[in-house]
Design brief:
It is a single chain. The protein is of the alpha/beta class. It has 2 domains: about 5-40, no CATH class; about 45-270, Alpha-Beta Barrel (TIM Barrel), CATH 3.20.20. Helices cover about 40% and strands about 15% of the residues. α4 (about 95-100) links the parallel β4 (about 90) and β5.
Amino acid sequence: MALANLRILGCEYLKTKKFPIVRIRMKIIAKIVNKISRKWMKLRFQPIRVFCFHHVSEVFNPLTMWECDWTQIDQFKSNIRHLKEQGYAFISLIDAYEKLKHDSLRRKKYIVLTADDGYKSILSILPWLEEQLIPITLFINTKYLDGKSWSAINEEQARRANPNVDMLKVCSDLYMSKDELFSLTSPLISIGMHGHEHLDATQQSQEEFKQNVELCREVLEQHPKYIHFFAYPWGHFNAETDQVLKDMRLVPVLVTGNNNYNNDEYIDRLAIDGKMVNS
């Protein structure tokens, strides 16, 4: 009889007998096995968390910022320190993507930082991130780089604060310039796409969406730190937009708040603007 069958029969026999010591030992063994199993599952399926933010600055500006997309710089640094204390390692988006494709046995806890839109306020935090050796990916809307154009949501916010606002004056210092963007060549920085304009992908035809992506790529693929990732504005997408990105061999980046486990089709993110991050 096979050894495995003998073991099964032996266990069944012991269950029918009143052997307290044996039964206690079996319970202890079961608890140990269960504990080891839980630890193994935790190690095997350790997620990669990808955070998204927009503005980081000392002072809130009601003309250019929504309260829901602004983080005070000290709070931002406090979040980073807290995550480091909790044992998280900060990696680039490219490294995260490769780990999600190939490395299911993750024993470390990983964080990825991303910032959307290309706001100039992000420049204030980059030297500190460089000192901390923390990578970051910037998702850029290319139409607004020279401050002569702006998105509908920029105008809505500015006119809520001041109906008579001069949008050209406000936006001249809202977005990075093209020169500022192309001067960012640190190995810790990568540049992804957010569309030429900040438009809801689900409100465009496939052709309109594709054109918005292509115009963005024409500019950004000249950047030495360009990566083939596209972050959907507001995280809005559908099957048609996903097909466009697939045909263009671009990786979709969402913002539905989920963690990433094992996936080579897209990256998911959590928006953390103005929030204290829990471990």
